Amino acid sequence: MVIFKKISDIKKYVSAETGKGHKIGFVPTLGALHEGHLSLIQKALEDKMLPLCSIFLNPTQFNDIRDLEKYPVSTEADIELLLKAGCEVLFMPDVNEMYPGGESHTRTYDFGYLDTILEGAKRPGHFKGVGQVVARLLEIVTPDNLYLGQKDYQQCMVIKKLAVMMGLDKLQIVICPTLRESDGLAMSSRNRRLTEPQRIVASTIYQCLVSIQSKQQISSFAIVRKECEDILTAKGFEPDYVALADARDLTILDDYKKDIPMVALIAAKIGEIRLIDNLLL
Ligand code: AMP
After folding, report:
1. If I label 91, which of 49, 59, 190, 215 is the partner at 20 to 30 A Cα–Cα?
2. Catalytic site residue 37?
3. What is the pLDDT of residues 65-76, one digit of tens each?
4. How far is the CA of 55 from the centre of ligand 1 (A)?
5. What is the mean pLDDT of residues 249-277?
């Protein structure tokens, strides 16, 4: 495993590897890795890329300081997992390396509509921070392919828009399916913080997404949404949103539409832990 902490060193490494004809498949993460992250590495390997992972707990994308403070950190275990998955290059900068002139002096992007709905509305400043860090990472790593998880559907759309704004027309963005636990719960670093009783009910989010999917022929979305909100609340969640959107541009839909790809999205808090998930319809 080669671990780079300095931008100048990873840049030198990337330029040497690309000089040898290797293509870089980049997997940016916040750390606390799990099988979901490793599936992105796996996909990069299948695509014959040199997988390069970054672990950077980016403070500028956390609108809630307690969420940042309690975010799980497990660097040793992460390195073990990366090695097992076949990833031998890790970029792990610190905050000063990423934002040398201070966070407020690093370029940010405006995602317009995408930043006003769902996660954008519930987590003000979150996508500004995501855009800021991903832009910086893309400039440093200059990957051929960027691997993202569908688990963060809106984030995928934001990053696609970012790539357009940055003029990265050669960058291939590869969206990988959400890996789930056996009961359907989407794998997430935040799941580690769930207590045993919370973990037992956590798959309710996925069950609600499946019911939104399966009832599209027989019910109105308003009714299904209300059912989901009631079920989530009864199980101890505080739902942030239960939403249906056009999968192509995230236009929010009031009801099911025929002939367009749709995505159902849920965000809900259980105790202090906020979980998100989505399902294509
Ligand atoms: P994070 O460390 O949470 O920022 O995630 C890093 C990358 O892994 C993002 O592109 C996520 O969408 C992706 N990811 C997170 N959880 C999963 C999952 N359960 N399945 C597939 N990809 C995931």
Report:
1. 190
2. yes
3. 999 999 999 999
4. 12
5. 97
Task: State the closest ligand 1 atom to the C-alpha of 40, by its place in the atom list counted from 1.
Answer: 22
Do 70 and 24 meet the contact criterion of CB atoms below 8 Å apart?
A: no
Task: Report which ligand 1 atom has the smallest distance to the Cα of 186.
Answer: 19
Say which CATH superfamily domain 189-280 falls into.
Pantoate-beta-alanine ligase, C-terminal domain (3.30.1300.10)
Domain with CATH 3.40.50.620 in the chain: 2-176
Fold annotation for 2-176: Rossmann fold (3.40.50)
Cβ < 6 Å from ligand 1: which residues?
Answer: 29-30, 36-37, 39-40, 148-149, 151-152, 176, 178-179, 186-189
Phi-psi region of 55 (alpha: psi -120 to 50; beta: other; left: phi over 0): beta
Indicate which residue of 34, 37, 105, 126 is catalytic.
37
- The mean per-residue pLDDT over the stretch 211-230 comes to 97
Distances 36 to 33, 94, 147, 149 between C-alpha atoms, Å: 8, 24, 11, 8
Instruction: Answer yes or no: are the C-beta atoms of 1 and 82 closer than 8 Å.
Output: yes
Q: Give the pLDDT confidence of 112-129 residue by residue, as tens digits.
A: 999 999 999 999 999 999
User: Ligand 1 centroid to 246 CA: how many Å?
Assistant: 22
CA of residue 151 to ligand 1 center, whole Å: 6
Measured in Å, residue 219 CA sits from the centre of ligand 1 at: 32
Pinpoint the residues of the chain covered by CATH 3.30.1300.10: 189-280
Residues whose CB is less than 8 angstroms from the CB of residue 251 and which lie 6 or more positions away in sequence, other chains included: 245
